[in-house]
UniProtKB/TrEMBL annotation:
Composition skew (Acidic residues), residue ranges: 1-14, 38-86
Stretches the record annotates as Disordered: 1-126
InterPro entries on file: Circ_KaiC_arc, KaiC-like_dom, KaiC_dom, P-loop_NTPase
The protein's name: KaiC domain-containing protein
Annotated source species: Haloarcula saliterrae
One Pfam family of this chain: ATPase
Length: 355
């Protein structure tokens, strides 16, 4: 910096020193005459109030773009307000009625399952029936439409046969006629399984309310055209309301050609629908995907799909779990719920979580 420059910093220090010397020789009350480098010395203050409008001034009457104008105050309903799950005031976009409809319905919510459907009337002219498994029936709004085609998919040991037998037992208790066709076990084995649970299948069979038929899967495949043609008439003569085929996987395995397999299974399921009976099929799960059948066909031909599977936690604890994959013409929970197989049959814990 040159000597001729006006060094404002040094000038300010010299004035401050001069003012200090004068203050030593005068009364302290004269301090108001002291030159303040930041004081009002008559010169224009670049930051002073010069009468013009200050764009940064706080004017109580001016509107601030960030001012709290009541849009988000406590008395106004907030679109993100928790007024159902945790609050008592109500009035938010996600209020009790709306939030409850999605609570625990396939979103992984707390212990509720399909509680949102329990007290709600389902207006439908379609006749409906229950599966016969309490916790599972509560996950379905209004029941399964009558004459629907149902499939339960699961690996070995998940209770597919028990699922079908319990489905028939519920119908028998309500005076319905039922048919059980097994491709896996003998007639006596099926009867023993049901009678061990004291479901009275012997009595129902003696009263012509129940028919248990064991067929060889090879013979059934060879004579499927005849069976398909005769089945509707037999069901009508027996006046059957419910039918179980255990399992469709064995029938599918009889066909090596995928196109032939699809055609035969499609025609067979269509004949069951034409027979006017509510039918439950059981199917082995795919080895690669527990949510799909072994051949990936039957779930597309049926109206309702129940998936039975093993679920293992990080601690290696294993539980059985059921999920409703789809039901045509019916609302249902999409949560996965634990179940047990006991001497009373399958019990689904609709209010519980898996882990």
């Amino acid at each position: 910096m040159s000597d001729g420059d006006d060094d404002w910093f040094e000038s300010a220090l010299e004035e401050d020193a001069k003012a200090s010397a004068e203050a030593d020789s005068t009364d302290t009350s004269a301090g108001s005459d002291t030159a303040d480098p930041f004081g009002d010395d008559g010169e224009e203050n670049p930051f002073g109030d010069d009468g013009e409008e200050d764009p940064f001034a706080s004017d109580a009457e001016s509107e601030s773009p960030f001012e709290d104008d009541g849009s988000f105050d406590d008395d106004s309903p907030s679109p993100f307000e928790d007024d159902g799950a945790g609050g008592d005031d109500g009035g938010g976009l996600f209020g009790d009625d709306f939030a409850t409809a999605f609570e625990s319905a396939g979103s992984g919510g707390g212990g509720g399952g399909a509680a949102e459907f329990e007290d709600e009337d389902f207006d439908s002219d379609i006749p409906r029936i229950d599966i016969g498994i309490d916790g599972l029936d509560r996950m379905i709004q209004g029941g399964i439409p009558r004459r629907h085609l149902i499939v339960s998919i699961g690996s070995a040991g998940t209770g597919k046969t028990t699922f079908g037998l319990q489905f028939l037992h519920h119908g028998l208790e309500n005076g319905e006629n039922c048919v059980f066709i097994t491709l896996e076990q003998s007639h006596s084995a099926i009867m023993d399984t049901a009678n061990d649970r004291e479901w009275g299948f012997d009595e129902y069979e003696a009263n012509d309310q129940l028919a248990v038929i064991d067929l060889d899967p090879v013979e059934m495949a060879n004579s499927l055209d005849n069976i398909r043609g005769e089945l509707p008439g037999l069901i009508e003569d027996f006046d059957a309301d419910r039918l179980v085929l255990d399992s469709v996987s064995l029938l599918e395995m009889m066909y090596d050609n995928p196109a032939k397999r699809r055609t035969e299974v499609f025609d067979f399921t269509r004949s069951l629908k034409n027979a006017g009976v509510t039918t439950m099929l059981t199917s082995e799960a795919s080895e690669d995907n527990p949510y799909a059948s072994r051949h990936g066909i039957i779930e597309y031909l049926t109206d309702a799909v129940f998936v039975l599977q093993y679920v293992r936690s990080e601690t290696r604890e294993t539980r059985l779990a059921v999920e409703i994959q789809k039901i045509r013409n019916a609302n249902h929970s999409r949560e996965t719920k634990p179940y047990e197989i006991t001497m009373d049959g399958i019990s689904v814990y609709q209010q519980a979580n898996i882990f």
